[in-house]
Amino acid sequence: MQIYLDTANVKEIQEGANLGLIDGVTTNPSLVAKEGRSFKEMLLEICKMVDGPISAEVVGVESEAMIKEGRDLAKVHKNIVVKVPLIPEGLRATKKLAAEGIRVNVTLCFSPTQALLAAKAGAWCVSPFIGRLDDVSSDGMALIRQIVTIYKNYDYKTQVLVASVRHPQHVVEAALAGGHICTMPYAVFQQLVKHPLTDIGLKKFLADWDAMGKK
Ligand code: G3P
């Protein structure tokens, strides 16, 4: 499973990238607004840090505006994936952008029928928001399983990008469900490697080694 960072914070992205395990980055208008800086300048900086797909979202809500924005964003760097919302206008824009060879991440997906339409429109990936479904007492991971099955049944090439991830267990379940990509906040990424028994075990190994040296 590919691991993406879901942030527009370049410090976090650089730290994650230093480990060499980050396959891509997703941003959204809320994450970009939090940074308070030029969008395109930020995207270029991110593209230099991570050599993989970098999602950048349009803010237009009509297909013509989305197509124009999408073309502009795609020109920023070859690794930019244009993110469009899963509304009828977004699907129309996806079809057009995909036909031009621009990769599209169809975002704000909350149902299997939406995901089916995103694949039919030619999306490069679809982003189901599992955390936000869990927040309203729905089963976010069940949606991932449904989409993975539907895409397999009809051999759609659209990838399932598991988004709105809140904790490591979401990552485990995304991988078990066969999600292609999982995007997560940097704090969740940091938690993936941690285990207290690893720390306790290492401390004991080193203490035993030191004790042998003193004999
Ligand atoms: O980038 C989209 C998604 O991952 C947002 O997550 O935590 O705001 O629901 P969240």
From TrEMBL:
It holds the Pfam family TAL_FSA. GO terms for cellular component: cytoplasm. It is found in: Cytoplasm. Pathway: Carbohydrate degradation; pentose phosphate pathway; D-glyceraldehyde 3-phosphate and beta-D-fructose 6-phosphate from D-ribose 5-phosphate and D-xylulose 5-phosphate (non-oxidative stage): step 2/3. Its main location: cytoplasm. The active site is at residue 83. The keyword Aminoacyl-tRNA synthetase does not apply. It catalyses: D-sedoheptulose 7-phosphate + D-glyceraldehyde 3-phosphate = D-erythrose 4-phosphate + beta-D-fructose 6-phosphate. Keywords: Cytoplasm, Lyase, Pentose shunt, Schiff base, Transferase. GO terms for biological process: carbohydrate metabolic process; ketone catabolic process; pentose-phosphate shunt. InterPro entries: Aldolase_TIM, TAL/FSA, Transaldolase_3B, Transaldolase_3B/F6P_aldolase, Transaldolase_AS, TSA/FSA_arc/bac. GO terms for molecular function: aldehyde-lyase activity; transaldolase activity. Its EC number is 2.2.1.2. PANTHER family: FRUCTOSE-6-PHOSPHATE ALDOLASE 1-RELATED (PTHR10683:SF40), TRANSALDOLASE (PTHR10683). Transaldolase is important for the balance of metabolites in the pentose-phosphate pathway. NCBIfam families: fsa_talC_mipB. HAMAP family: Transaldolase_3b (MF_00494). Belongs to the transaldolase family. Type 3B subfamily. This is Probable transaldolase. The lineage of its organism: Bacteria, Pseudomonadati, Nitrospirota, Nitrospiria, Nitrospirales.
